[in-house]
Write a structure and sequence with these properties.
Helix content: 25-40%
Shape: elongated
CATH class of the largest domain: Alpha Beta
CATH architecture of the largest domain: 2-Layer Sandwich
Order of helices and strands: EHEEEEHEHHHEHEEEHEEH
Strand content: 15-25%
Oligomer: single chain
CATH superfamily of the largest domain: Transposase IS200-like
């Protein structure tokens, strides 16, 4: 990892082949002890989150190298330098050995390379840079710095992954420390308060994770792009699927459709979200006087609500199933 002192970084890794890395509750606590031992001499931890198959750290780097003096005898001492990268490697290897012994497995537990992204606004970073293997892509919302957006993303990762409905319900992150529900020993409270980061997280109503189906066959590319910009002003847009060209259903004498889906988070209930989506359709000029399967500038339908299918079209339309699977799929049967 290319890391320099004096900067904030988002550091993350996942299980090899996206495999599980935490099997029992005590595994999470053991990993936290390793973090205290191997990270804190080098960095201030701003936020952290341990997920079943990956982890996130947001840190401020103070030192790249620490010197340890070992007393070998009364007259002989030895100085050993250890870098932050080396220390992270030791952390992951020692944790891996413990899990291999516990689970009776062999081979790599983590991906070969731990990743680090610098969090400064002067560096051009793709706003949705977070690897979907580590959760969900998130956009850099207007008015937020990369640091603020990353801290918010890390804490919301268990919600985006539909493990919990509220950030504070996942105890293996620093969210509870931010909310004053716990006084953990890993994050640097003084730094967080000085940076104004404590206000990035508040106890909230349950967040709903929703996948909305998208369809258009009138200036499809332009209208879908316009719809997404409007939607971003109403909810948090987490991820957009690949768009798929499909033949029209019912009335064949019309242009092919462009279909896909968008994954969002919202505190709106299902009825209110449906109303809001229809308002977006109306705002974009949706003509509701034509035939049911006629051309349309935009069509928005809730397909999956908190992991559960709520639109019967999911079972009959391959393109909708494919888009839903790309965005995380269905978690409830």
């Amino acid at each position: 990892m290319d890391i320099q002192p004096g900067f904030y970084y988002h550091i993350y890794n996942r299980g090899n082949n996206s495999s599980q890395i935490f099997f029992k509750e005590e595994n999470y606590f053991f990993f936290l002890t390793k973090m205290k031992e191997h990270l804190l001499p080098y960095v201030s931890v701003v936020a952290w989150c341990l997920m079943p198959n990956h982890f996130h750290w947001v840190v401020y780097v103070h030192n790249l190298t620490i010197s340890d003096t070992l007393t070998l005898s009364e007259d002989i001492t030895k100085t050993k330098n250890r870098t932050l990268n080396q220390s992270i490697g030791i952390l992951l290897r020692s944790y891996t050995r413990a899990i291999q012994k516990q689970e009776g497995i062999s081979g790599s537990l983590f991906q070969k390379h731990t990743k680090a992204k610098v969090l400064i606004d002067e560096v051009v970073i793709e706003p949705a840079y977070w690897d979907t293997a580590f959760g969900t892509k998130v956009n850099l919302f207007e008015g937020k710095t990369y640091l603020e957006a990353c801290v918010q993303y890390v804490h919301n990762n268990p919600v985006y992954s539909q493990l919990v409905r509220k950030v504070e319900d996942w105890k293996f992150s620093s969210a509870r420390d931010y909310l004053g529900m716990r006084k953990g020993q890993i994050i640097d409270y003084e730094l967080i308060n000085n940076e104004g980061l404590i206000d990035t997280l508040t106890s909230s109503e349950s967040i709903n994770i929703v996948i909305v189906g998208i369809g258009s066959n009138i200036n499809a590319d332009e209208n879908i792009a316009k719809m997404l910009e409007i939607l971003k002003g109403e909810v948090d847009v987490l991820q957009v699927s690949t768009m798929i060209k499909t033949k029209p259903i019912g009335i064949e004498d019309q242009p092919d459709y462009t279909n896909g889906a968008v994954k969002i988070s919202t505190d709106l209930e299902q009825t209110d979200l449906k109303k809001m989506l229809k308002q977006i359709e109306d705002r974009m000029g949706r003509d509701r006087t034509g035939p049911k399967f006629g051309p349309r500038c935009i069509d928005l339908d809730i397909a999956v609500w908190n992991g559960e299918v709520v639109d019967e079209d999911y079972y009959t339309r391959d393109f909708l199933r494919k888009s839903v699977q790309e965005l995380g799929g269905v978690t409830k049967k």
